[in-house]
Task: structure prediction
Amino acid sequence: MTDPQRRKADPHRQDMLEIYKLHAELTDRVSQRCEVANRLYASLMVGLAAALLAAVSRAGIGDARLNAVMGLVGMVGAVVSASGIRVIRYYGKLEATKRGLLREIEETLPYWFFRRESALLSDDTK
Result:
């Protein structure tokens, strides 16, 4: 049986290939969203640092208003940092789960791309 005949004989494989392609695209989008989240949190932290620097340059050391601004910036920075860590961990877990599902789907396909890629990468690190 030739390959085109096999594809006609096994429509399930073609369906799995389409599901695989869709899931691979969705996994890539998760990576892109994680990158955007990283940039957002980095921008927020830079903004907080700039606000703190502006407050220090306008007020004298030991000024009560400066102490209040520093305390506020510190609290906001801690909240932003904790939130960023949580979001980035979530995206990492989501991407790992999606890649695991892709590996399961690829077992129904004739070529196991991610397994081969992992094998080649592990060979390069030795």
